Amino acid sequence: MLRFILTRVSLVIPTFIGITMLAFFLIRLVPGDPIETMAGERGIDATRHEMLRKELGLDQPLLVQYGIYIGRVLHGDLGKSIVTRESVISEFNALFPATIELALCAIFIALAIGLPAGIIAAVKRNSIFDHGVMGLSLTGYSMPIFWWGLLLILLFSVQLGITPVSGRIAVQYYIEPVTGFLTVDSLLAGDWDAFKSALSHLVLPSIVLGTVPLAVIARMTRSAMLEVLGEDYIRTARAKGMAPFRVVALHALRNALIPVITVIGLQVGVLFTGAILTETIFSWPGIGKWLIEAISRRDYPILQGGTLLIGVVVMSVNLFVDLLYGLINPRIRHAR
Amino acid sequence: MTAETLEAPSATAPAGAPPHPLREFWSYFSANRGAVAGLVVIVLVLLAAVFAEVLAPHSPYLTNNAVFLKPPAWQEGGSWSYPLGTDAIGRDILSRLLYGARLSLVIGIAVVALAMALGIVLGLVAGFFKGVTEIVIMRLMDIVLTMPSLLLAIVIVAILGPGLMNAMLAVAIVVLPHYVRITRAAVIAETSKDYVVAAKVSGAGTLRLMFSEVLPNCTAPLIVQATLGVSTAILDAAALGFLGLGAQPPTPEWGTMLADAREFVLRAWWVVTLPGLAILITVLAFNLLGDGLRDALDPKLKR
Amino acid sequence: MPLLEIENLSVEFPTSAGTLKAVDRISLTLDEGEILGVVGESGSGKSVTMLALMGLVAYPGKITADRLMFGGRDLLAMSDRERRKLTGKDVAMIFQEPSTSLNPCFTIGFQIAETLRKHEGMDGKAARRRAIELLEQVGIPAPESRMKAYPHQLSGGMNQRVMIAMAIACNPRLLIADEPTTALDVTIQAQILDLLISLQRERDMALVLITHNMGVVAETAQRIMVMYAGQIMEERNVASLFAAPQHPYSAALLAALPERSEGEHRLATIPGMVPGLHDRPKGCLFSPRCAYATDHSRLVQPELRPWQDGQIRCHYPLGDPQRDALRAAGGNRLAAPETTP
């Protein structure tokens, strides 16, 4: 088991180096002089230009520059925003909980609906329910979620007026951040109205963000269950006189979950992709919106640092899922 | 006479000649109603795209000061000269959607063609020249796969500058790893088979082996991936357009149209609903077709 | 009263190309403590018959029977819930592939204890104790430490022992073993068979041994049932069938045994294949491969009828004194029964 963990962790190192290289070299591709770009339209005089060049290490060879960059990254220094002069890390830390809260709610919705739907569809194969689930999930999978968000706003916020259009919480509430999750923090503060406000702001974005993972999980669960239900050990369980529910929910599901968990892990990337769009539509103050705004402000350090941080987050979650996979699959757990 | 009675039943059975592969494929494919529906929709979209000039009642760029945000014809205040209504600056939505179909199909096909061409070459190279070349290529692809696809596309566009061409290039780079992986996996699976070994022994060069022996044997998964890839490309390009990083106004690209329409969500449902519906239907059609092709081409599922 | 009574049991599967008759009007009785060998080629319906008896034929499969009694209880009239109280307890089954028949995600201890908890109402501790006993009985060394093992950590033979332990956990009155040794090494095969037979003797349970190995049947079973294309061809006492097979198919199977081919250079084979969905003959299902087929037997299917010490489905049993006359009347176009040149 230890060996399994070590191999998996060591496999991550080249990916990490790759992500840093991506973040480093992509920014170099920006046309024009980086300092002039940073200075913006006001321009910069020659001596200060030279000073900045030295300060930023831009007079060094590219590989040395990359080395310096890696060193800084490993010390947690990802540079400062050109616009706000705040460090990239602290801005990221301030906004990341909002994205996590949204993503967790989205994946919760996706699992709560997708798993049972996939299981029932597999058990009642070729029934109307099965066809319905498959049709809906393919539609969800094909959904342009930026449009889906607008559509939900049109229906629930504009026509029915039951959910707010944007933001995380109504403006009159101020909640001291503890966990950074407004729903949790408002409960910790004992402010029931603030909690309700935060929750109502969370509903639509979570549905929008959860749609694609929901579709993928339902489809994957169904196909994994179908495969497992045809296995010999399912026949054995039935030959032991086990009730159909126990056969499906224990004997089959336990095995089907192994590939499904991998797929859930892969949804992390999809969630970030979706978060960029969802946060833009709902003005959700998370890192997706932060990055899009950084682009329109040409705030390259944020773009560079944000890309790196998201890359590392996705990589870590993938690693975690990989390890979890080993934990629930005895064949891997006991492999030597 | 003895032989007759002892003949194997399988031989006496009325066993017709095996059906032509294409015919067999069609019988599997046409049994899948979803896939056929997808194909029909794609053909319709294709026709709309090809005959946009003929079908569109107006120019997609023509603004008309007299008809800002006119509702669709069947609603009160609508008129049949603008069947699906007009947008905020009086352009005909139907015409823009028709020209948008042309744009979306071109985007989807161009992106997939680019990614596939590059992916096949990289995959063949990685599969045939093992060692460092393979490791470098596959590691690069892993990194591309690790990054959330839209984020990577956004970063690329942010650096290259917004615009349809750059957006297409970005999306092509993002979907590249799938084609590389499929081709490489096929190469590795095929090169161990006897007929490739035979070709090698008989003196076929590596290049010849690559393109004439191995490539035809991984077309099935590539066709499926390409079909599904068109839908991804359309969706991602529309998302970039929506974020203001893809096609720029006044281009009648569906995602860009949605971005323009956002602020009118409270007043005019049609400017928001229709372009998105067009994206959804087209993407769904390609996904249905892709699924159907996979089922029809995948021998494992045949019974 | 016999332990098991089956009358005209059929199992059909609808397929896109038509209805597949996997089991066709099987009738059979089995007494307590009896060993029945079921032989036949793959696809002859041996396994499906027994799965139907266990209530394990999955959804599109359709089971019909005139009578299906076990221990005096009518299986056809039972609710699914009542039936499940019987399966795994009074009737147990083990399968061909021990390694895939055990759930890879659970320890073998859990899988054995699960049966005990369900049917014997044992608590976790008692079930564990009993499971260790059972593992010991089926000859698994160090049973206590094996309780925590997963199926992939054990060999195929060990896994089959675990399957047997699981099957006998609730002292079944009937154990069905579906080719229990086919997937195992030759040396292990004999051990597993010996284990099954000794368990059967100790507990006086009935045993149905499905196999395509006639030799195994000769050594272990009291009665033998020969199946072909979903039908019973011949069902009789082992000794008498081996001494004088009555159905041409049984005779051909025996002739194909290596130990019977004295002095001959090549093993006898049965030409042709088991009929499939589309080439099912109109008359006797074996007629296309039968050396004694007549126009009559090609057109009219023989009924299953009592014959000697058992039953047979044949127009012209080999021991029938009027055989030649009947065949001649049946429009025999053949001069002599010969094998392929």
Automatic annotation (TrEMBL), chain A:
GO terms for MF: dipeptide transmembrane transporter activity
CDD domains registered for this protein in UniProt: TM_PBP2
Transmembrane segments: 12-30, 100-123, 144-162, 198-218, 256-282, 302-328
Pfam family, one: BPD_transp_1
Membrane disposition: Multi-pass membrane protein
Subcellular location: Cell membrane
InterPro entries per UniProt: BPD_transp_1_N (IPR045621), MetI-like (IPR000515), MetI-like_sf (IPR035906)
UniProt domain ABC transmembrane type-1: residue ranges: 96-321
Family label: Belongs to the binding-protein-dependent transport system permease family.
Name of the featured protein: Dipeptide transport system permease protein
UniProtKB/TrEMBL annotation, chain B:
Pfam family, one: BPD_transp_1
Residue stretches making up the ABC transmembrane type-1 domain: 101-290
Entry's localization field: Cell membrane
InterPro entries xref list: BP-dependent_transpt_permease, MetI-like, MetI-like_sf, OppC_N
Entry GO MF terms: dipeptide transmembrane transporter activity
Membrane topology: Multi-pass membrane protein
Chief location category: membrane
GO cellular component term of the entry, any: plasma membrane
GO biological process, one term: protein transport
Keywords carried by this UniProt record: Cell membrane, Membrane, Peptide transport, Protein transport, Transmembrane, Transmembrane helix, Transport
Origin: domain of life: Bacteria
TM spans (from-to): 35-56, 103-129, 149-176, 222-247, 267-290
Keyword Thylakoid belongs to the record: no
Family: Belongs to the binding-protein-dependent transport system permease family.
Name listed for the protein in its UniProt record: Dipeptide transport system permease protein
From TrEMBL, chain C:
Keywords, sorted A to Z: ATP-binding, Cell membrane, Membrane, Nucleotide-binding, Transport
InterPro entries for the chain: AAA+_ATPase, ABC_Ni/Peptide_Import, ABC_transporter-like_ATP-bd, Oligopep_ABC_C, P-loop_NTPase
Domain ABC transporter: 4-254
CDD domains in the record: ABC_NikE_OppD_transporters
UniProt subcellular location: Cell inner membrane
One Pfam family linked to the record: oligo_HPY
Keyword Nucleotide-binding in annotation: yes
GO biological process: peptide transport; transmembrane transport
Record membrane topology: Peripheral membrane protein
SMART domains recorded: AAA
GO MF annotations in UniProt: ATP binding; ATP hydrolysis activity
Name under which the protein is recorded: Dipeptide transport system ATP-binding protein
Organism: Bosea psychrotolerans
